[in-house]
Amino acid sequence: MSQTVVFANQKGGVGKTTSAVNIGAYMAAAGRRVLLVDFDPQGNLSSSVGIRKQEIGIYDILIGKVAPFDAIVPTPQENMDIIPSDLHLSGATVELVDAEGRDGYLKRALKPLVGQYDYILIDCPPSLGILTINGFVAAESVIVPLQCEFFALEGFLNMLFQTIKRIQSSLNPSLSVGGIIFTMYDSRTRLSQEVIQQVKIAFKAHPELLFKTVIPRNVRLSEAPSHGMPINMYDPGCVGARSYAALTEEVMKRV
Ligand SMILES: Nc1ncnc2c1ncn2[C@@H]1O[C@H](COP(=O)(O)OP(=O)(O)OP(=O)(O)O)[C@@H](O)[C@H]1O
Ligand SMILES: [Mg+2]
Fold this sequence. Notes:
alpha/beta; 7 strands; binds adenosine-5'-triphosphate
């Protein structure tokens, strides 16, 4: 059976896409079969693996225009495929709102692929709208990347976890929280340390939800996407790569 993991946080630019592509790449490098699903109309996950302006994508699967297998594209990383996002996905936000069973579209669309991969990783847009809800319904676990430079995150986290709880009690009782990843950590700033402290206090009843590996701010991680490569291919020795390698081991034990 596949483990389906959704990367979500309604705040933009916190490291959802960077975490999805690099964790996926290290899973694949460890011999797991990985499918990335770009569920963000921005298409950043697709461009992170060198795919631009895709004609066929996740939207075509959602509306039943193409079979899921026909939208799968290989990535430069062996054992890792992707279903790219496409320009039409933003339209889905509007169209799905009135559709019957609107929250289960992605789950139904991915159903034929379950069992074909060890891990299916879904990258969501920065909102708690219909696309992210579809991600929550399709997944067994949710991973929340959290930027260590973000102040006043408590309100955000509350809103996110309330949404997850609502999904757990209605649409998807088997959804569990895989964990929170601290990203873009900068040891020179006090803010980074404060953010981690604040979250540790907020989660003191569930310390297991915080991944131990912290991802530092590392320029190589931000360069890799424009070369269409995950970090293990772009610069395997850099500190960002080593951190994502260690984090992936933790993730694979957890989900
Ligand atoms: N650890 C890091 N060090 C340096 N730069 C990073 C790191 N993680 C991510 N970035 C860069 O920060 C930006 C935002 O990261 P990313 O796209 O992964 O966030 P996101 O949460 O997916 O954003 P969005 O909400 O827009 O989808 C990108 O330019 C990315 O390359
Ligand atoms: Mg993103």
